[in-house]
Amino acid sequence: MKNAMIRSFTTMVFLLLPLALFAQGQIYKVVDKDGNVTFTDQRPNADAQPMDLPPLSVIQTDVQAPAVPAQAAPAVEDEAGPLTPKELRKQFSDFRITRPLAEETFWGTGNTVVVTWESSQPIPPEFQVVLFVDGKSQQGQASGSMSLVLDRGEHQVYAELRDERKRRIITTPVVTFFVQQHSVNRSRPGG
């Protein structure tokens, strides 16, 4: 495929070269002993005569071409293929758990805690987030949140961002938090 692209490019250069050179001055056609044709703006020998090219057709019009909105530059991935895990780690270096906060205590939530995560870069939909709650993995969506029903007490959570090939890209720091419920023996501080 690469060779076909190179051949196509070479053919196009040879087809467009006479037009480009015409703008510069005289064009000469040279045929070597093997029959290969070359166009040049350099006189190959003293008795060579320039080609008689037909004039270009130019049509003037008052119609204005519609304005085309500028397009964003293509992503690096489009130009150079998929990003490596190292490049992805750099891109998502700020991936983090935003809720719960470290040492946060949840009171009266019916043991439900919502864990949220984010990154300044949009997480592609084909990526996945795997939450580890008290050491057990739970599958999450690429971006957003997950509701957990937990027992009372201390809990730890961290998240892994994985690419479409399930490779771990980055892991958040562990967040420790607490779930408490009101009871006769234990009431909310200050309440």
Characteristics:
Immunoglobulin-like; six-stranded mixed sheet; alpha+beta; three-stranded antiparallel sheet; 3 helices; about 190 residues
Describe this structure in words.
The protein is of the alpha+beta class and about 190 residues long. It has two domains: about 1-40, no CATH class; about 80-180, Sandwich (Immunoglobulin-like), CATH 2.60.40. The protein is about 20% helix and about 30% strand. The protein has three helices and eleven strands; from the N terminus they run H-E-E-H-H-E-E-E-E-E-E-E-E-E. The chain has helices spanning about 1-25, 75-80, 85-90; strands at about 30, 35-40, 95-100, 105, 110-120, 130-135, 135-140, 145-150, 155-160, 170, 175-180. Strands 4, 6, 7, 9, 10 and 11 form a six-stranded mixed β-sheet that branches. It is elongated. The N and C termini lie far apart (about 70 Å). The model is unreliable at about 75-80 (pLDDT under 50).
Describe the structure in brief:
With 191 residues, this protein is an alpha+beta fold. It contains three helices and eleven strands, in the order αββααβββββββββ. β1 (28-31) and β2 form a beta hairpin.
CATH class membership of the largest domain: Mainly Beta
The biggest beta sheet reads: 6 strands, mixed
Based on DSSP secondary structure assignment, what is the total number of beta strands? 11
The CATH homologous superfamily of the largest domain is termed: Immunoglobulins
CATH topology of the largest domain: Immunoglobulin-like
Shape: elongated
List the uncertain runs: 73-78
Mean pLDDT: 78
Proportion of β residues?
A: 25-35%
Structural class: alpha+beta
Instruction: State the helical fraction.
Output: 10-25%
CATH architecture level-2 label of the largest domain: Sandwich
Number of self-contained structural domains: 2
Task: Provide the succession of SSEs.
Answer: HEEHHEEEEEEEEE
Per DSSP, the total helix count is 3
Radius of gyration: 33 Å
N-end to C-end Cα span: 72 Å
